[in-house]
Each structure stands twice: as structure tokens, then as C-alpha cells.
Design goal:
Shape: elongated
Helix content: 25-40%
Structural class: alpha/beta
Distance between the termini: 13 Å
Strand content: 15-25%
């Protein structure tokens, strides 16, 4: 008897930290360090408009004439965001992340960010599935 494929909401990080589009890159970097995270959904008026990653920060901060205290998140973020609903099937989300080399999926419900699913969450989900389904 096979078990149903879990939904992303079971494995996502709920209530993720986010940042406003007009905040500085320095503020984003400080938040990522403080909360030990690598992805920040970027909001404008409560609406998702982008995603800022630690990789984005490292890239823009590597340019010699960039002042992270003045550069806005909007100038460093990616405006293309992979987003899914909480009831999306785990296998489909993970498959898309692998195929397109995405480090995360922002989980949206009714136009609001309700979670984030990162590669760390993928590893946790895999460990749980291996333990619960294969150890018996």
C-alpha cells in the first residue's frame, strides 16, 4: 500500500522573514546574519515583488563601488520568484527546484507569503521520508 505524496505545507518554513523593497542591502545582510537564513522574500505594500538571496548579496557587495548602506534591495533582488501554493505536491516542487536549479520556493496563499521551502527543507523532508517509509 503506497502512501500519498506529502504537501509542501508539511515541510515548509512557516512565517518566513521578509524585507521591504526600499530597505538597504546592508539591512538585508544584517537580517540574514541575525536569523541565519539565505533567502528573503521582498515585499512592496504586502505584495511579493522579488527574492533576495545570500548569493545576490555576495555578488553586489563584491563590486568595489557599491555602498551596501545606500544600495536598495530592489536593485539587488531577482524579480522572478518561484512560488507555489501550500497544497502543492512535494515531489512536483522538488522536481521543479532541481530542474531549474532554484534554491527555494516561496509559498503563497491568497496573495500572501505564508512560507518558504528551501534546499535545507528539502533535505529535512528527504530524511523524514527515508526514515518513515524505508526503515520499516
Amino acid at each position: 500500500m503506497s502512501k500519498p505524496i506529502p504537501r509542501i505545507q508539511k515541510h515548509m518554513t512557516t512565517s518566513p522573514h521578509s524585507i521591504g523593497v526600499n530597505q538597504t542591502v546592508a539591512k538585508a545582510h544584517a537580517m540574514m546574519n541575525e536569523y541565519k537564513i539565505r533567502h528573503l522574500p521582498v515585499l512592496e505594500g504586502g505584495k511579493l515583488v522579488g527574492l533576495l538571496t545570500d548569493r545576490d548579496l555576495r555578488l553586489v557587495e563584491s563590486f568595489k563601488d557599491v555602498d551596501a548602506t545606500k544600495l536598495k534591495v530592489e536593485e539587488a533582488m531577482s524579480s522572478v520568484v518561484f512560488s507555489v501554493e501550500p497544497d502543492a505536491a512535494l515531489d512536483e516542487v522538488v522536481g521543479t527546484m532541481a530542474e531549474r536549479k532554484y534554491g527555494s520556493a516561496v509559498v503563497m496563499q491568497n496573495g500572501k507569503v505564508v512560507g518558504i521551502f528551501t534546499t535545507v527543507d528539502v533535505c529535512r523532508a528527504l530524511a523524514e521520508l527515508l526514515h518513515s517509509r524505508l526503515s520499516k
